Amino acid sequence: MIKLASVSDAGIGLAATVLMVATRCAAAGVNHGVIRGARTVTSPAFDAPRPSIDWLPPLDRFRPAQPRRNQRVRQEDRLMHGRLASWLVRVSQPSAAIGIAVGAGFIVVETLLVVPLRQVAPLEALALVYLPGILVVSAVWGLWSGVATSIVSALAFDYFHTPPIGRFQTEDWRDWLGLSVYLMVATVSGSLAQLARMRALESIERKREADAVAEMTRLILGADDVRAVLPEASDRIACAMQLPYATIEPDPAPRREGQIQLPLDPGALVVPGDVPDRVLRRLRDGVVPGLVTVLRAGRSLQANRAGLQALLAQQAALRRVAVLVANGVAFNEIVAAVATEAADLFDADATRVWRWDGPRTVTGVAEYNRNPGSGSTLGRQVDFADGVADVVLHGARPARIDSYEGHSGPLVDLARAGGMHASVGAPVVVEGRVWGVVVALWRRAGPPPLGIEHELAKFTELVATAIANTESRAELTASRARLVFAADEARRGLERELHDSVQQRLISLGLELRFAEAMVPKELGEVRSRLADTAAGLSDAFENLQRIVRGIHPALLSQGGLVPAVKALARRSAVPVTVRGGVNHRLPGYVEVAAYHVISVALANSAKHADVSEVSVDIDVVAEESATEAPAAGEILIVTVHDDSAGDTDPNQGSTLAALRDRVEALGGTLTLANPAGSGMSVNVKLPIAGQDRQGMDADRSSGGT
């Protein structure tokens, strides 16, 4: 074997040198493998790479300042060591055949290299020539390849270079020292290389885990529906962990044979049952905790998105109804819009608005039904006993019935007839009193969503506002109507007072003057002339007073009605007037007076224009159209005054027409003016005839007059 001069000097020195070199090379490989793995841990889900150890400040920062040249040399030296280590220490070993060829090549080259070196170095030192081959083979191909290379290297050195050349010497124990050193170097180098290889492999696996978790984070947090992206996230886990399959179950699933379920709380990650323990440990320690966190965040984000979308939809629906309320739309349209918006927002099959009429009855004022064939509730009075309306109306609070089983009553039977299974309701409270209830109903089995009755209450607040506005407008209209009625009554009273007292007194005075004139002798001609002039002046005053009385309140209007009074007015007009009347019965006094004054002012305005040659007056009564399915509310008087003037003037000028518009609107009617160029001026008036309040006011209308 190898002949060493001194065991204590050469052998121990050689062993120490070899160990130092092998340790540094292998350690460099370990560190470079870890650093290389850490540097590559990036994720497409982030713009920047994940933190690595490169951000740590170099130790040179804490050392005394040195020349830049020395620092550059050290950096180049570290870079060279790193490249060498990355070449020597690989994650996967090359094939054994290549290792045998490389080891044999090293031994041949090293054996030939010893020959020229024998001239300049002692034989004991030349044993170091075989160390590079042992280091490379043990580092790249593992411990056993390094051991084999060490044995063959020792035999080659002993056979070709140790005297006697050409023979193997094994008698002395010291002959085995060189082989022991080779084996120790191979063992240390191979072990450290294997450690570095394991560290590098672990870093790569952690990179895959980090990439998988990052990709799952991007998928799950960026998805509107978490369940929809779970299959793709499962494929990413299976690919990263090199598994045949992996399945993320969002809900608890029964355990199946041949599978392993890793709990995700809730749900589980299902993997094959033959997964290696190392991979299973990586799944438990690395993937599952991150997956649980991401799933919780994804579900929370999805719930927040759904809640935000529901809030936006609710606010949009409330805004649309609020716009109707603010614009003063008719109450029937507002409650119909509330029923429609509530049904669409809460995915209800039907919504109904009930007005509380008596102790146990409600009347339907609006509804929305996805299946109109189930029957309408508009205008229908129903006993609300044992229904959701019973709880809402008597408790003045939102309520719900999750199932109609065990409930009975007319309102419940009506809901069952439409196929409904559950309902919620919210009260309509107007100025502290319960006016009615809004009810939403569902045909599907199961209870309605939790808290939906409180969301429905937000719509009832708008209904209450609409009712309050409607009542306020009705009170204002009634107040204006009372003022008009009072004014008309005052005018009629003034007309009667003038007729019964002043006009009669003027007539008697005129008769007395004529009698006095007849009694004056003919000789007193001047006196008779004075009396005649006084009687004539009194007659003119009487005629002027009659004209004033007709302006205050025409007697013919009270006696004969609207059409005869208008015809008499037309005969006194300065322009020809054609009157077409389709009214065959008397109208309420307030309607006749308002229409008469509008026609009178319109004829007076037409007479002011020199280009007017003819005026037409149309008077007709038509049935009022109901906005709901209820019967028509009554009749409408329609009056149209049209002339053939040139037009193209502002029809709203002047205070008379404005006052007339106020009068007509106070009676619930409308007055519109049109004056297009070349088409003449048109005045159109619509006055409602029916109405309990107005009929009551008109019940004591005087039918007499002068």
From TrEMBL:
Gene Ontology CC: one annotated term: membrane
Predominant location: membrane
SUPFAM superfamilies assigned: ATPase domain of HSP90 chaperone/DNA topoisomerase II/histidine kinase (SSF55874), GAF domain-like (SSF55781)
Record has ATP-binding as a keyword: yes
Leading EC class: transferase
EC number: 2.7.13.3
GO molecular-function terms, A-Z: ATP binding; phosphorelay sensor kinase activity; protein dimerization activity
Protein name (record): histidine kinase
Organism: Dactylosporangium aurantiacum
